[in-house]
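# nightly structure sweep
# worker-07 picked up a monomer target from the shared queue
# config: single-sequence mode, recycle default, output format = structure tokens
# input follows
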Amino acid sequence: MKIAPYQPGQTLKEHVTDKRINEGDVESYLIKEVKKLGGVAKKWHARGNAGVHDRIVLFPNDEIWLVEVKAPDGKKSVKQREFHKQLYDMGYGRNLTVWCYEDIDTWLLMRQECIRAGAFPSLKYDAFQPVGTQLMTGRIKR
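# output follows
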């Protein structure tokens, strides 16, 4: 399947319910968009550790993100929700889940805006929010 970018004017619901988009398409789009910004998105293989994120995204200047990739109709397992919440509770704000191209575009745009403003690029992430609402701006208390 050829990956097409999110279409302007398309609602999130229309985009997310497009059954033609699978997890591999979303993951390929993530890799391509991260590379455009000078980063890499490496596959995370953690044998015996269910629940870890799919990708470790590395940007210049020690910026590391943990990204879980899901198909638009995908659901997180209980172990994934528990691990993601554990990271969030520890104050690690650079972990998120993306379900569609728009989630990736929104995250990368917010990251760029933080960098332009001189802020620590991070996201408040709530592992229990529904699709399209998990991205919220915020700063992590250290």
